[in-house]
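CHAIN AND CONFORMATION:
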Amino acid sequence: MAVLHPSPLGGKKNTRTVGRNFQSIFLMIFTLTMLSGIGARLAYLQIVEGNTHRQRAESNRIRVIAKQPERGNIFDRNGKLLASTRYPRSVYLWPMAHTKPSWPIVGPRLASILDIPQADIEKKLDEAGANSSSLIRIARDLNEAQVTAIKEYENELPEVEIHTEAVRYYPHGTALAHVLGYTRELTAEQLKERKKDGYRLGDVIGQMGVEKAYEKLLRGEWGGQQVEVDGAGRPLRVLGEKQAKAGNDLHLTLDLDIQRAAEKALGDRDGAIVAINPKNGAVLALVSHPTFDPNIFSKQKLTQKDWESVQGEDHPLVNRALSAFPPASTFKIVTTTAGLESGKFSPSTILQTYGSLNIGGTRFGEWNHAGFGPLGFVGAMQWSSDTFFYQIGRGVGGPTLIEWTRKYGFGQKTGFEFASEETKGLVPDENWKQKAWKIPWTVGDTINMSIGQGALQTTPLQVAIMFAVPANGGYRVQPHLLKDNEDAQNWRESLNMKPTTVKILRDGLRKVVSDGTGKVLNKPTIPPVAGKSGTAEAWKRRVKQNHAWFGAYAPADNPDLLIVAFAEHSGGGGGSVAAPMILQIMEDYYQKKYPGKYQKPEAKKQ
């Protein structure tokens, strides 16, 4: 009988079977785990982030070709064009252009053709971001040679596109620079501030003048095309289009003929000329010199010569019509008003004038060093007697004189549209002097202020508003440039002056021109004029170079034109330097308005 023994080989076989089963189970669990992870990730990508990825895919397939709106045109009061649009050719790139393999060829070639550093091009593309779906302008105002070169190398420049765009154009160049202002491409800082308002990289914005003040009206709305492209970025079809909406046209109160005449009259002198309608504050001309050509800012890149033209030591970008200077004897309008309205002096007041007055131990001189004998208010205005007005100022006192200075609008902005450019000027008082000099106000300060000197600072525009008060019968008006600005046109603030005060002011200003320091304006070539001169003491580089002022309006009995001329550091007097400018402008204006009535004598003989 045979005995069966367990085979040792059979034992080994069972161990291997168990090992294989364990490996199979582990592999199955691992596979299931991996599949679960992949499934979960796929579910997350499809469900949670599906919309995001669809948008990314869509943005890679769809491009937006933006179309910049045309800015509104600007016209003068008679419909003459002051600012419009031209259509240069510009170079655009897709933002991801410099990340493509072809960029080592495209970048240097494009930089060479456009004469722009390649780093500058790449910076613009980086600022836009590689995922941006809008074309980015990298150069403007292509000349024919550049256009030809890009076309010649178009096989090497597949990402480069040339488009025509709307760019601001100022047909009168320097003649209207400070009043119209200019537009310029947004800086990076401005873009951060303006993104919420719909501005984008490469957009332009009004930087000063009318362009800045009425940016919202002039700007318009962007349009563009949605274009489907293939994997190589080539356009396949237009998916949709939104027309760009042009900005609103503006009609200004400005009169181009008066503006040109004022520009010519001021010439190469540093200074300003302001012309307004004294009845409603409409600004008819606003000239400042030195000036600049606003068209240079429409270029993609300013040359060294361009920068020198706007960054000179005389500060061409500064609007002197809105900058503050001592008003000199033009201010005697305010001193007269304070004297009469305070009740300290009557309309029949007569005061002796002198070569000088000693007040508080200080000698205050008369401009002719001799005096004019006894004078009333009208005669004192006629000859611009300093010692007469010293006595008026001392009589009314500092607080009353300061009160009337503020009533005339000095020391505050006029309400003119260029709020960010307009200076308030300075009306000094006790608080100001204590803060600035840590010493009290004295009678000497009042004396200086009575003739428009000392720390008093006013702008040519503010001086024009001062002259408008006697011109229109006692009302302060608001200067404005927008023709249909009814609120400004109708704004009149009565200074509640006595009729006798207004009459003395008007009589005195008329006497200045008929028989006094402004006789240069007493001509048959223009209507009867009323006005006042001013010569402000000033120094430039330690040399005395006075400022010259003259303000005048015509016709004297019912004025429709008021002009203030200011010559900075002219070194001459108001009657000899500034008044002839006003004569030149008025002759041009009234001879055009009334042909044959106010001709020059030689013209009549012909």
Q: What stands out?
A: The first strand starts at residue 62 and ends at 67. Residues 454 and 593 are 41 Å apart (CA to CA). The chain has 22 helices and 25 strands. Residues 256-593 form a domain with the Beta-lactamase fold (CATH 3.40.710.10).
